[in-house]
């Protein structure tokens, strides 16, 4: 099974080709350019350098959120376009699951945190159980103080990773049981999306492009501002 995977849900843009247990190619960029400028050239580059044709992929995998609203939509549009053009099914992979999958077979709790702005992070808690990554909580958009309290409640070491770490590292560093993942496994990687997609395909997780759904966890800023404006207008009319 060969999977072409992308992740544009956070600051990092990443594309990879994985065949069974072999990583054929991966291109990850954490820099200034927007994902709309980078993701298609990255896909073209890994296909060219690995002498792989896009239609050789059995599935297209895409990180499905939570994350940046713009990044989510760019990734979804790219994945759906590829799936439609190539006649392939899509495999949606929750971003937090793929991030946690960067840390393999540890006996510690894993807590990816993605900066969600407005003093919040997107997060969930995970543990490896009998060789399988298991989500211990729902995916949440909560404050870092709530994350810290939940992590402390486990009363064991917790590994933190994700782009929320540098934002909140000062507070997290106050607790000796909190560990920070190194740079090579702390941010989104399309290779992790692809590898996790392999498992999801076996569990029936592939879908048609038209039924591909994103995980938002909360409303966009534009939606929140619209609701606030309408509420304000309602109060004026009372």
Give a quick rundown of the structure.
With about 240 residues, the protein is α/β, with parallel strands linked by helices.
3D structure, described in words:
The chain is built from 7 helices and 12 strands. With 238 residues, the chain is α/β, with parallel strands linked by helices. The strands form 3 sheets. The protein has a 5-stranded mixed sheet with strand order 3-2-1-4-5, with helices on both faces. Strands 10-7-6-11-12 form a 5-stranded mixed sheet.
Question: Quick check: average pLDDT?
Answer: 93
What overall form do the CA principal axes indicate? globular
Write down how many β-strands occur, each being a DSSP E stretch of 2 or more residues. 12
Gyration radius, rounded: 19 Å
Q: What's the order of the H and E elements?
A: EEEHEHEHEEEEEHEHEHH
Q: How many separate helices? A: 7
Task: Outline the biggest β-sheet.
Answer: 5 strands, mixed
| Ends apart, CA distance between termini | 61 Å
Q: From the helix content, strand content and strand pairing, which structural class follows?
A: alpha/beta
Question: How much strand content do the residues show?
Answer: 25-35%
Helicity level: 25-40%
Strand order of the largest sheet: 3-2-1-4-5
Poorly predicted regions are none
Question: Can you lay out the helices and strands and say which pair or pack?
Answer:
Layout: E1 2-7, E2 13-19, E3 22-29, H1 35-49, E4 59-63, H2 69-86, E5 89-93, H3 95-100, E6 109-115, E7 120-123, E8 126-129, E9 132-135, E10 140-143, H4 144-153, E11 158-161, H5 165-172, E12 178-180, H6 190-202, H7 221-237
Parallel strand pairs: 1-4, 4-5, 6-11, 11-12
Antiparallel strand pairs: 1-2, 2-3, 6-7, 7-10, 8-9
Helix pairs in contact: 1-2
């Amino acid at each position: 099974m060969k999977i072409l995977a992308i992740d544009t849900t956070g600051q990092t843009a990443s594309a990879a080709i994985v065949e069974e247990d072999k990583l054929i190619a991966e291109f990850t960029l954490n820099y200034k350019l927007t994902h709309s400028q980078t993701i298609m050239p990255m896909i073209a580059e890994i296909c060219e350098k690995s002498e792989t044709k896009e239609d050789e992929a059995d599935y297209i995998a895409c990180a499905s959120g939570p994350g940046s609203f713009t990044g989510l939509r760019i990734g979804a549009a790219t994945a759906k376009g590829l799936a439609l053009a190539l006649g392939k099914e899509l495999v949606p992979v929750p971003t937090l699951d793929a991030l946690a999958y960067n840390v393999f077979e540890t006996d510690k709790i894993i807590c990816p945190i993605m900066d969600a702005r407005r003093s919040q992070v997107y997060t969930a808690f995970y543990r490896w159980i009998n060789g399988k990554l298991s989500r211990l909580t729902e995916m949440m958009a909560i404050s870092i103080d709530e994350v810290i309290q939940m992590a402390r409640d486990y009363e064991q070491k917790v590994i933190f990773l994700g782009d929320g770490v540098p934002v909140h590292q000062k507070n997290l560093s106050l607790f000796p049981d909190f560990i920070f993942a190194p740079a090579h496994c702390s941010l989104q990687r399309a290779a992790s999306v692809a590898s996790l997609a392999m498992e999801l395909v076996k569990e029936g997780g592939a879908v048609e492009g038209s039924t591909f759904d994103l995980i938002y966890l909360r409303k966009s800023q534009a939606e929140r501002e619209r609701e606030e404006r309408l509420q304000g207008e309602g109060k004026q009319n009372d």
